[in-house]
Amino acid sequence: MNSLKRPKAGDTEEDLLKEEKEFMENLKSQKISPAAKVIRVNKEENSSEAKVKDVENDNLSAAASEDGHAEVEHPAEAVLFEVKERAFDATKLKDFSGLKELPKFPRVHRSMNAEPDGNVPTKRKKSLFARSFDNRKEQRNSSKEPPKKLAPKLEAKLGDTDRKVEVEKPPERVAIGDRIHPYLAGMTEEEILEEQRKLLERLDPRVVEFIRNRGIQTSSSPLPNNIAEPGPMQVDVNSSGHHVGSSDICLNPSVEEDDLPINPKNVEQYPRMSKVEYNKLAWAGVVKCDVEMDSAAVQVKGKTARFDFKGLLIAEDKANDPSTYDMALHNHGDEMERPGYSIEELLILGRSTTLQQRSVALDTLGKIYSHAHSGIYDEIFEQSVFNLLDYMDFIYVIRKGLDNSDSSINSALSCLSNLLYPESEEICLDVSYVWPNTRPFPLLITKPEEIKKDSSSEKEMKDFEFLQLDLLDFLIGRTEIISRMEYLLTSKTELFNEQGVISVLKILIRCARHSPGSVLRHEKLLKYIVVNHISPNWNLLKGRSATIQGIPLVTALKLVRVLIESNLDTAMKLYHNYSVLPSVMSYLAYDQWREQAHVLEVEDLVLESFRIWLAFLHHGIAIDEYVAFFPVLMQFLTFYGRATVLSSFDLSHSAHLFALLSQIICFGENSKAEGQQLHSHWNLVKDAKSMVEEHCIKLLKIFVSPHLQDMYNVDLALLSLGKGLEFLTYALNYCDKNSILQRFKLVMREFVKSSTYMKLTSNLLSHSVLLADSPEKSRYPINFASVGAIRWQGELNPALQSVSPFHFLAYFVSFCKTVMKTEANELVSNINIDNYLCKLKTHDDTSDNADYFVRFELGCLYEILDVLPRLHPAKFPLAYRLLSHVPASCDKVFKKVLKVSLHTCCKDSDVDAVYQFYLAYFFLNEENQEEACENKKSTKVRFDDGGHPGDGKMETSSPLFRNWTVRLADTHWIFHPLENLYKRAVSAPRYVDDNLEVLEQETRGCLSFIKHCLIHYCDSIIQMPQDLVTVYCRICRTFMLGTPNVYFDDTTTSLLKEILLTIVNGKVASCAAKSIFSKYKPSHSAAVSFYDFYTELVREYFDNSYFNEVFASYLFLPLRSPEDLKVKSCFWNHEHLRCVRLSSDKLPISTQYLTSIPEQNPDMLMIFTRHIKRGTISKDKSPFLYEVIVTHLKNAQEFMTDDLRNEFTLLSL
Q1: Which of 339, 966, 1090, 1106 could lock onto 329 through a cystine, CB 3.0 to 4.6 A?
Q2: Do residues 1082 and 1092 make contact, with C-beta atoms less than 8 angstroms apart?
Q3: Are 713 and 648 in contact (CB under 8 A)?
Q4: If DSSP codes are grouped into helix, strand and coil, which group holds residue 1176?
């Protein structure tokens, strides 16, 4: 193909004439091929056939262009594309002066509609002025043109009326898919789907994803309309049949043109006036309202929720109450007749420039969420009001309120604190602070683990995406809310009232529960809080001065306590740099607190001071202050020993005091600070022992006497008694037990027979978290962390309900076990405890997440199980199941329950070895943790980007940083090490060869423990068919470690044989009459289905096992008759089956197990027949397989077809 020469800037006139001549010669000789080929269309051709042909040509051209270009044999004759000639219409020709004669040389012609760059635009919508001009031109020429034919009349039925309305029929438009419809009509559904698949493969996946998602509303879109709408209610229909509050007042009304105020045709030239909007006309009262509504069009829809200024939902019966006008509850919104304000209206008013409107709106919004945290709105609204936390617009309004420089900032802070700070939940956490097993406290993190580890992906996220992951992290990191509050609290003090300061502290408490380091980094803020709201000033507390500065606040103490509980480095910094403890000691030593006991703040200040000191002692610091505090402590103990009547505050105060004494004794055990020695501090508290005994005996006698019980708060009295018994339990390790036994033996026997103890033990069932159904719904979205203290519909968590037995029984049973030893079980057990254990044994829990407050029940259960006899039927099954319920953060409870289970099913000599093995697997090895503590010599406080303590990295191995909803182990935790060994074996190519000896030892140890458990408690471990499949798959991991040397060992072979026999003789496997392995999936991530796992197992057997007998016996378990043909054919149709040599005397499994149920599948029987007929399996080569096949064929003659029966007859079996 000759290339076309174009003129150059330096060409002369002679050069141009020469090039023109060459162009014309090439054009005549056809040396220049056209870039487009015109196809003449036969006008008489059938249009439908042409369309089908066009579609086929399009498909062919699309298929040819998949690689971006088509292959052409002769490039000179190539045509870039074909141009199909349209029908000729001379009226559409445009007059171009340059086209009146034949082209002599290529020229560029600019279209009159072309853009300045020369590109011809696509057809665009005319402007408003152009349309107005065209309408006027048509009106002037209307008299000259013949009258148009009227559009046909369309019948519109509305209700029972049949009126004809003249509606101008819109012009017919050519649908985009008209060309493809005839083509699709001749295709089946499968062919259409196949073509669709091919089309999607050719398209860019990003384009397909964009097209699919472009209609989906993004998170940054406006707020949803159905948020905070009540549920289904009665539709308010007036006398004329209109739905009050509905936007569609008239649906397709039959209205005459005479009823309209103006003729619609006269205003068509004006913008947006060509369409008659009947709903607006009906609202204005123009349209008559006597039109009947179609009953199907009326939708039952809830009304918008409206609230008063207290944040309470206004009931429907108060909608017509005249007093609502006096309360200023009517506004100029869409529903002026309804009192109250919707959340949308409050958000609008929250951005008002008027101070009063902005303050009232934010206050009301905060009160709404304060009530919503309690659960009173859970079943009222169609969606939870907390769903708004996913929307940037909502968070923006509240956060924007913090940027004001007037008194409305108090309202904005109150709104945000009510949103983030669930008051009821925080109270529950405070009440249970001194209960057993409360530590570690929760970190309110909702971000997924993979995002926390990958900081780069977090930085690339947009704001609305990050908001949907973690609300608190978004506020801390993206909005810098802590820095803003630091500036306001330290620089704009005159704007704050008491409620504003308390709101700031509440927000900081929630931030500290999420990222304590983020709060600790703001030293100026912490110093201001310590100086102004922690340092004591009792005179200001009495008089309540006009200013808030200098008044000690309970929330300030709680903020410090939450920071101390987070980690050791934070506690050390607060102890040394901020001098918090001297102020705390002054509150504890204040001698006039009884005179002000009626002041709630005083009581809370004293109790919170105890908690701060306990938090310091837990980290192994602040022990030196105890010596100075000892005289005050003895004064308190003397009072408790002599007092005849104790108030509720006395009981709470004594419980915290006894907890302090217990913490002093355990100080050496919990010490992690540098330079601390592991020693007892019994000498510091031994003088308090006799006084605590007197107090405990006094309370026991009160519970025994019914006439004295009504004088005391039972919950607080039990807490005080329990903490006293806990202290005495620790004291028994250092003093004579006989003296305590003589004093307590008689009164304790009377106590266990009292009505109080019977009520406590009967509450085990009603207060159990393990037996209670997990809440199906949650009022909070996934970006808001909650420990679940207040469940759905405001139900209190069962473990926290009144007269909770778990914390007291944990202390009481532990004390009895220490004092009485063998008699403890007889003393504490009764029929209520037996019923509780029986219910737990048979209860089936399907939930995956752990309840935060289940730790109290687990601690109590451990103490009960520990005093049971070793061979008690409920001891191991319950201990085995409890380990799968322990949260990852409660590692101490896990260790205790693990030892109980090991002492039940293992020899005493093997307990320690197995215990260390499993602790190492679950990363709870005590030796490793102690080594880590010893190597930690630095006292410098360092934090990572997220505010977590550590050397720039988050300590993910520490239980403190694990989510409390994650469990440490699953239901079959004893098989975890085998799964772990398999993962290690396949992790590296030479791992097995380099660590073969260690691998064999660990496999033998794990199988030995599994054998002991299954032999004694097989039916407790394998309770359902799903359990059988999971246990089978995890044991078979032994055969998939990459080498047969692991199971060739005689000891390992013997263990595998005993385990197999135990499984086969178990209740589930022996009684199975239906498919098990083919129906259930293994509960481990290595296999998608059992068929995939079994296929891999069969391949391993035929390739690497040297046809090991034990391995083959495990392969036979899923080959029983009820199983699916697909699974069984994996083994029976294997190409190397003829090489198998198996005899019955060497296999632990019998032919009776495989043949007890007759084979009924004709295909399987045909496979058996062919094996015998072809000699693949014979009696001499593999007697076991031959006996199985022959037995199946003999027992299944009634299920054979005629052809199969004839073949069986010819075999002469």
Answers
A1: 339
A2: no
A3: yes
A4: coil
Q: Which amino acid is at 55?
A: V
Give per-residue pLDDT as tens, 279-325.
677 666 665 544 343 333 333 456 788 899 999 988 877 777 777 77
Which of 1050, 1030, 1011, 1031 is closest to 914 using CA atoms? Answer: 1011
Tell me the percentage of the chain whose pLDDT exceeds 90: 23
Helix (H, G, I), strand (E, B) or coil at 192: helix
How far apart are alpha carbons 499 and 370 in whole angstroms?
Answer: 14
Find where tokens 């033990």 sit. 761
Q: What is the pLDDT of residue 1203?
A: 77
**Is residue 736 classed exposed, middle or buried when 0-12, 13-18 and 19+ CB atoms within 10 A define those classes?**
exposed
CA 648/CA 657 separation, integer angstroms? 14
| Neighbour-count burial for 918-929, b at 16+ CB within 10 Å, e otherwise | bbebbebeeeee
Return the structure tokens found at 912: 């320690």
Q: What is the C-alpha separation between 1037 and 1025, in angstroms, rounded?
A: 19
Residues 6+ apart with CB under 8 A from 537: 550, 551, 552
Residue 432's nearest CA partner among 659, 695, 626 is 659
Which residue in 439, 414, 418, 419 sits closest to 429, CA to CA? Answer: 439
How far apart CA 623 and CA 617 sit, in angstroms, is 7
Do 430 and 424 form a contact (C-beta atoms < 8 A)? Answer: no
Q: Which residue has the tokens 């109250």?
A: 340
As a whole number of angstroms, the distance between CA 1027 and CA 1015 comes to: 16
Q: Quick one: DSSP state of residue 823?
A: G
Alpha-carbon distance of 671 to 148, in angstroms, equals: 99
Q: Whole-prediction pTM value?
A: 0.71
Dihedral angle of Cα 48, 52, 53, 57, to the nearest 10 degrees:
150
Residue 817 tokens read as: 């076990």
Cα 827 to Cα 696, 814, 833, 1081: the distances in Å are: 18, 12, 12, 46
| Nearest by Cα to 946 from 932, 931, 961, 934 | 961
Q: What is the pLDDT of residues 629-652, one digit of tens each?
A: 888 889 889 888 888 888 888 999
Spatial separation of the C-alpha atoms in residues 42 and 117, rounded to whole Å: 37
Decide: residue 1076, CB within 10 A, 0-12 exposed, 13-18 middle, 19+ buried: buried
Q: Which long-range contacts (CB under 8 A, 24 or more apart) does 948-952 make?
A: 948/515, 948/516, 948/517, 949/516, 949/517, 949/566, 949/567, 949/568, 949/569, 949/570
**1042 and 992 in contact (C-beta within 8 Å)?**
yes
Residue from 383, 249, 364 nearest 307 by CA:
364
Q: Is residue 197 helix, strand or coil?
A: helix
Alpha helices, H only, 228-334: 278-283, 323-326
State both tokens at 37.
């080929």
Q: What angle do CA 1209, 1212, 1213 make, to 5 degrees?
A: 105
* Lowest-confidence segment of 62-71, 422-431, 631-640, 1167-1176 by average pLDDT: 62-71
DSSP 8-class letter at 158: E
Q: Tell me which of 682 and 278 has the higher pLDDT.
A: 682
